[in-house]
Each structure stands twice: as C-alpha cells, then as structure tokens.
Amino acid sequence: MLQAVIAGAFGALSNAFALLKQPNPTAIGMQEELSLLHSACAEEYAKRSGLVDAPDGLAGRLRATPAWSLLSRLGLPQPGISHPAATVAGMELMLSLHRGKVMAASFCNGVRLALEEEALNLVSLESLLSTHQDEKPPHWIKHARTIYADFFSAFDETSPQPLPPRSFEDRARTELACRAAFATYRRRAGVLDDTCLSRRQIAEAVGYAGTGVFRSPAEREAALWIIGMSGLFGTSTQFIPLATAAPEDWVISYDLAAGVLRRDYSSLVPEAARPRPGVGTPASYIATTPAPARVAEELKRRALDVPGAYELGDLIPALRQISPRDLVHPDLADLGPSFARWSRTLAPLSLQVGLDTLLAGVICGDLGVTARSKLHYCLIGADELWGSAARLYAVLGWDRPVAQPSGSLPFGAAVVPTASALAQLDEAAWRWVEAVRPPKRLGHEALLLEFHNRFVRALSSRLAVWVSLRPAAELSLRAVIQERFDLCVDLLEKSSAGRVGALPAVICDGMRAALMSYREHCKALLERLRTFGWSGPVVAWLMAVIKREDVPLLCTIHGRNNLVPQGTNDLRKTLPGALQLPADWGRKFMENQLRQAGAQSRDIDRHQRHEVIGQEQDTSIADSCEMEWVLRLKPILDRISRQLFRSPLTGLRTGGVAT
Fold first, then answer.
1. How buried is 407 (Cβ within 10 angstroms: 0-12 exposed, 13-18 middle, 19+ buried)?
2. In whole numbers, what is the pLDDT of the chain averaged over residues?
3. Can you tell me the distance from the alpha carbon of 389 to that of 374, in angstroms, rounded to the nearest whole number?
4. Are 162 and 195 contained in the same domain?
5. What is the per-residue pLDDT across 213-258, written as a single tens digit (0 to 9) for each?
6. Are residues 130 and 210 in the same domain?
7. pLDDT tens digits, 145-179
8. Of 166, 201, 221, which marks where a domain is finished?
9. Cα–Cα distance for residue pair 640/527, rounded to 1 Å
C-alpha cells in the first residue's frame, strides 16, 4: 500500500509540475524529494516482494484517510495518471505539502470517482476549467478552479497566464464528453431531479403564450428546441454554425435546407474499430436530429432576413442575451425553470415517455442517459431517429419532424455485422465441420482431434452471439453451467468501478440444446480417446467438463498433453470468414438486434453486461427480477437464433445436435 501511495503521489506531482512554465526552488525541491522517496520505496518493495499488507490495517487506513485512498488508486498499474483529475490531485498535493494542510476529504473522494470516467482521459485540465464557465461543475473541478491561481503563485516564478481562448469546436467536443462523463445514476434512470424541469414546468414552458426576450412565439419555440436538443450548454447554442458556413473540423451544425441538427460524435470514440468491406453496413458517427416542421420554417424565415448569417445566434439574437439562470417562463417556485435546467431536461424526459436510452441520448445530444460504450456497438437507422424524435415531439406538443433526407447514413459503428453475414459465416462453419466428420466407429486419431477442434470453434462462434461475448484470450464460459436448469449463465469478463464479479446473460433454447449436445460430445470423445490409450491433462479436462467442474468449457486439443482454452484471436484466425468480422461481432450484432426487436433498454444492458449505474436490476430503482427479465428476453433471443443458425451442428455422439 505504501508503494502504491508513493507511486501515485509521485505521478500526480509530476503531472502538476508539468503545468509550471518556470518552476521555483520550492517546486523543484519538492519534486526531487518525492522522486528520491519514490526510488527508495521501490527498492525496499523489491526486497520484500513476498510480503503483503494486513487486510484489516489496509482497509482501516483507506477508510480513515481519503488522501491515501486517492493516492493509492493513482499508484495502481492501470490507466489513470493521464487523467485531468490526476493533475488536479497533484496540484492539491503540492499545496498541501507546502502549507502543511490536510487534503480535503470531499475533494479526494470526488477525484477518486472521477478517475473512473474514461471519457475524460483525452481531455486536458485547461479544457475542463474553461468549459464549465456557466454551468455548475463537479466539486473537484470547482476546487481546481479555486486553487489554480494559488498553485501558480506558490510554485511558478512567472505570473500565471490566463486560460487561452478556445474554439467553439473544441468546447463543443468537451461539452458533449462532459454530458456523458458526469451523469448520475438518477439521470441514467430518467429521473427529473433538481437539475431538470418538473413535468408541470415542462408543460408550462412549452405552452407559455408569452415571448419574453424573443421576438415572437415561433422564435421562442425554435430557441427552446435548440437549447433542449443540442446537447450543449445553453450559452453555447448561439455559436452553433450553419451547415453552409461550418468549418472543416465542425462538431455540431444546423442545416437550414434540410432542417436537421447534426453532431459529430467521432471524438468520443477515438478507438472505434475500422470497417471491413463486405460484412458491415455503411455508417458514420454523425448523428442527425430533425427539427419540428414549425421550427424549421421559422429558422428559414429568419435566415432570409439575415443573408450573411453564420451561426444560430445571428438568426435568434436572444440566444446571445439569455443567461443560464434566466427563466424559461415566469414561475414563483423556489427552484425556477431556468434555461440551464431546460437544457438538461429532454433526455431524461425521453426515457420517461418510453424511448430507448440509446435513441434518447443520440437525438437529444446527451449520452449521460445511456452507456457511452454503446457508441462502439450501435447501428441506428435514420428511420429510428426520426421515429424517436416524432414520439418525443408529440409528448411536448411540437410539430412532427421535417421529412427525412434521402440517402441518410445510419448512425454508429460501420463494423456491425449484418444478419446475412453472420448466417453465411455459420453456414460456412457448419460445412467446415462436416468436411472432417470421422466415421461412426473409432476413426483416425488425428481426424478425431481435428473434428473436435472445428466443432468447438463453430460452437464458440454461436455462443459469442447468444451471450454477446467480449473478445478475450480465453472465453469466460466455465463448465459449471447447469444448462438443463439454469435460466442464465454468469460470465466474468471485466470489472468496473463499484461492480466486481460475474454478470448474467440469458440462456435461450438454442444455447441450452447446444450445451447439452456439447456434454454428450465430450463423453463420446473421452470414450474414443481412451481406446487410443490417452491419459493426462486432456482426459482430466474432459472428465471435469462432463462432471461440471470449474474448468474452461471450450478448449481445443493439439496433442496428448496440449490443451488450449478457446479464445477470440484463435477463433478469428481459424474459422472461415471470421477474420473479416470485428473481434466482438456477437456483441455488436446482438445490441442492435435486441433494440430493433423492441427489447427494453434495461434488459439489453443487462444481457450485454454494460454495467451502467441506474440501469442494473439490482439497484433500488428497479422493480424487476431475474425471472421476469428472462421471460421478456428469451423469446426474442430464440427468434434471432432460429433466423441465424439454421443448420444443425452435430457432435460425435448420435443425437447430439447443437441447434
């Protein structure tokens, strides 16, 4: 623990030290002392590599000292030191050591939780400080803004420079990322809390007959749509460029001719997989939100009055005048309907009216109501976006959306495999297995192993779809599965903040029959290998699978003592046609198939094991149970399975068929 704390302190201090233009002797001496301490601690730790911390002492120290808990988190061998929160922790640590003042507990806890937000890894501290100017920031960013000047005056010889101005495109990227990164569980559950307007205030805001600072009721309606659906802070909407005047690196723009608002989400998925020809659907990360017909017509009329208009603030000058605390409509409530609260209202309202969380987040520009990781899996057609917008507008009393432009690309990952591509892959795998089927009697030993290996790989490809497996060197399926009785299979693939251990996925009828067939295949394989005099690891593994012990369920056999657990890389290299697919083709396919089949958002997220706070069934806001979840999802999975896997995958034993 001490090694982790010192390593975390040294890394955080180095981040903060890098901000200084001309470090003074105090800062240099502090860095040198901590560097020596870090080296000495590393040497002592290497000498005592076999020793571990006492669990009770470790837990007690971390509970009693939030600063140790934060620094030990920074010292772990995993991503986090590059996070802007780590830089803020370094600034606070240096000031704490300089002044002899204990680091604030609330600050330490806030930074430790913020480190889990991977969406901020590519965002600089200066970007965050300059972004949260008109909105209430998280506590640790507010604290960073407070100590920013003190830090430079204490440790820099030069006077602190003001934060450089940023382009609108840069600020827009950060604001879209912050909406996804700083969401609470209440927001992800669609709760209209104190950060949003209430249902009464929403109805009054939309139906208010006055104009306020706007020139007409039509202009006011257009402004409400822009502020509510852009996904940006209310004061940033004035800078949204028109499509004809947008720069090459645009992030958000409004197309007057088509009447649509477009956002480029590619900055939120910098590591998205590249498309492969022939197996996916053409798509892009440009999300399109159609405007209500009245709003589109009003903006066109305003554009005729301002021929040289460059941005929406030119069409609606009031967007440049309103502040976040200004009220959308007159109200005497203690918590008034401000424009800042209105800008955060429509996404959770979309969940309340029954929209899928992913669709709600995309059309409202607010990914805080869904899992940001879904951007790597999703493929949303323009019809879905238009239908979702129409459903939300009907609730608000707005017009139907403008007509859908022809040739609109779907939104999302261009590597999502189509149903026909997976069906062709499975048919090729079936033929590949049947080509080496051994005789009903013993057959040749090498042919027997080749058949088993092909059968395991073909079965693995179906399991990857059935339970939406993540790519892994060893697939997480274990032989302890009770396929005859279990409703779900527990998969241990990854852990995240606040959640460890296995997560469930529904077992459909096709998967249940396949696992029963696989057990019979293993029994037949064990009998045949024994006739060849086999013993050792392979025989022991087959017996463990038959007895449902805790061993890998899927393994290929390459010799009497060479047993290899099945993994994604091997599957893609050996299965015919699999190399053209993404490594997690089952997850990408099933995410969209379940949504298009009408499955509930919470059911999809649980089956996909997205681990989204507020959407898990074991939280206090959920009233469902596992049995109800299975009954809702299983018929959909059965139907998808029958459409994809039409050829029976037969094992060695007669009657053992994986359908």
1. exposed
2. 86
3. 19
4. no
5. 999 999 999 999 999 999 999 999 999 999 999 999 899 999 999 9
6. no
7. 888 888 888 888 876 666 667 789 988 998 998 88
8. 166
9. 35
Residues 386 and 501 in one domain: no
Helix axes 445-466, 509-531, angle to 10 degrees: 160
Q: Which of 508, 534, 389 is nearest to 452 (CA)?
A: 534
Q: What is the bridge-based pairing of β-strands 260-264 and 488-491?
A: unpaired
Q: Looking at the structure, do residues 509 and 605 belong to the same domain, yes or no? A: yes
pLDDT in tens, 85-100: 888 888 999 988 888 8
- Of 141, 166, 191, the last residue of a domain is 166
Q: Which domain holds residue 124?
A: 2-166
Tokens of 647: 């050829």
Residues 503 and 651 grouped into a single domain: yes
Tell me what pLDDT residue 250 has.
94
Residue found by looking up tokens 């970007």 in the block:
127
- Report pTM: 0.75
Question: What mean pLDDT is predicted for residues 132-142?
Answer: 67
Same domain membership, residue 396 and residue 436: no
432 and 285 within one domain: no
Burial class (CB in 10 A: 0-12, 13-18, 19+), 5: buried
For the chain, how many structural domains are there in total?
Answer: 3
pLDDT at site 498? 54
Q: Using 50, 70 and 90 to split pLDDT, how confident is the model at 259?
A: very high
CA atoms within 13 A on the CB side of 406: 0
Note whether 375 and 268 are within 8 A (CB).
yes
Length of the chain: 659
